[in-house]
């Protein structure tokens, strides 16, 4: 659903850009709390949440290359707002999808640069807000189980895609550059994106279900569903202290602390999946136009489409120039895109987490009482 340049006029594009900028600014502040993890002082997993958020952005980029058929001559692809919000939180989710859209627009000429604000407002903000709102509502009324999280993920993702179609239709009604009855645009956009939403829901539920099966502690939407492991001391630990002359060998051994679980395996598995999708499976993706492209062509929305500013870039259209083999050219472009998105996303999230940690460390010093003056004489 990447909107190209020329679909929406300049005033509405500028207004959408302002909304997108405000949403990103708010998300930057909210993501600092989400990236700090749960618990005091950064909480459990704070040091690994930022790299995982960068991985989520890279994974969304990769899976978006896998267009799947939804109707005759029409395809769809993952939008990713629901998946990001549930895995790493709504504020971080907005940033994840925004990073993906920025990389696609700048490096691959996918989505207009003047329409970047429209795409962020539509594909990042709308999908994340709608999906996370539906998700939180469902997990409150469903049994507090891991299966409920997966079911809620499916429904939230399903509804987020037609919501994005409605958002685009509203923006087109305000600033569309062609004279097309808005009712026809609404019917066509919502109809095809309901079908695309089914694919989005399946991908989201499978991914969330896979992560929650192995590491539920890393899924933002699953927080509070499981209690942390409690270590119980043996009865000997509660016995009275030994007499001073009791041999040290008879003293009860201290209870060991719970080992910290590394997220490295999950991170490597996610990176491998992203590289496989972008570097290999993308060659077999549907070549049919996606929902927006199909509707735009059938209804005449694309008559004033402008050429992309980076149409001549070496990676335009997800293919490396000067490489004759299309499979190699597309696969290499996908791998480059995953690496670039991972680097930019991780860099942004690491900086945000460190700024949050630095602010938390500085707070006690500011609030500490002044030392009492020394007594005289």
Question: Can you describe this structure?
Answer:
The chain is mainly α and 377 residues long. The chain has one domain: Orthogonal Bundle (Arp2/3 complex 21 kDa subunit ARPC3), CATH 1.10.1760. It has a two-stranded antiparallel sheet. Helix 5 packs antiparallel against helix 6, helix 7 packs antiparallel against helix 9 and helix 8 runs antiparallel to helix 10. About 7% of the residues have low confidence.
Could you provide a short overview of the structure?
The protein has 377 residues and is mainly alpha-helical.
- Secondary-structure class: mainly alpha
Let me know the average pLDDT: 86
The CATH topology is given as Arp2/3 complex 21 kDa subunit ARPC3
Low-confidence stretches: 38-46, 227-244
What oligomeric state best describes the polypeptide chains here?
Answer: single chain
With strands numbered from the N-terminus, the spatial order across the biggest sheet is 1-2
The rough form would be described as globular
Question: How many helices?
Answer: 10
How far apart lie the N and C ends?
A: 79 Å
CATH class assignment? Mainly Alpha
Radius of gyration, in angstroms, nearest whole number? 25 Å
- Bin the helical content: 55-70%
Main beta sheet: 2 strands, antiparallel
What percent strand? under 5%
Q: How many beta-strand elements?
A: 2
Write the H/E string, N to C. Answer: HHEEHHHHHHHH
Corresponding CATH architecture? Orthogonal Bundle
């Amino acid at each position: 659903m990447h909107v190209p340049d020329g679909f929406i006029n300049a005033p509405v594009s500028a207004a959408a850009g302002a909304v997108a900028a405000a949403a990103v600014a708010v998300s930057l502040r909210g993501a600092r709390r989400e990236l700090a993890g749960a618990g005091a002082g950064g909480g459990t997993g704070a040091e690994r949440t930022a790299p995982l958020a960068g991985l989520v952005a890279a994974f969304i980029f990769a899976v978006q290359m896998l267009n799947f058929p939804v109707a005759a001559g029409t395809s769809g692809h993952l939008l990713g707002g629901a998946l990001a919000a549930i895995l790493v939180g709504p504020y971080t989710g907005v940033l994840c999808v925004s990073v993906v859209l920025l990389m696609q627009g700048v490096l691959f000429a996918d989505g207009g640069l003047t329409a970047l604000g429209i795409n962020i407002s539509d594909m990042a903000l709308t999908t994340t807000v709608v999906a996370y709102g539906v998700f939180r509502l469902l997990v409150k009324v469903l049994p507090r189980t891991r299966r409920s999280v997966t079911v809620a993920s499916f429904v939230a993702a399903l509804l987020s895609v037609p919501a994005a179609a409605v958002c685009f239709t509203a923006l087109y009604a305000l600033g569309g550059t062609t004279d097309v009855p808005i009712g026809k645009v609404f019917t066509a956009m919502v109809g095809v994106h309901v079908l695309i939403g089914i694919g989005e829901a399946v991908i989201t539920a499978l991914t969330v279900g896979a992560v929650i099966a192995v590491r539920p502690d890393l899924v933002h939407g699953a927080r509070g569903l499981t209690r942390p492991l409690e270590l119980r001391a043996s009865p000997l630990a509660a016995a009275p202290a030994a007499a001073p002359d009791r041999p040290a060998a008879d003293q009860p051994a201290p209870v060991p602390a719970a080992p910290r679980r590394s997220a490295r395996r999950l991170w490597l598995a996610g990176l491998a999946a992203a590289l496989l999708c972008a570097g290999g499976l993308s060659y077999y993706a549907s070549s049919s136009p996606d929902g927006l492209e199909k509707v735009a062509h059938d209804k005449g929305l694309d008559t004033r489409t402008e050429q992309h500013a980076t149409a001549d870039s070496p990676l335009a259209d997800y293919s490396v120039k000067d490489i004759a083999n299309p499979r190699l050219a597309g696969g290499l472009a996908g791998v480059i895109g995953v690496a670039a998105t991972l680097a930019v996303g991780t860099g942004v999230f690491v900086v945000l987490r460190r700024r949050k940690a630095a602010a938390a460390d500085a707070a006690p010093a500011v609030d500490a009482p002044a030392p009492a003056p020394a007594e005289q004489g």
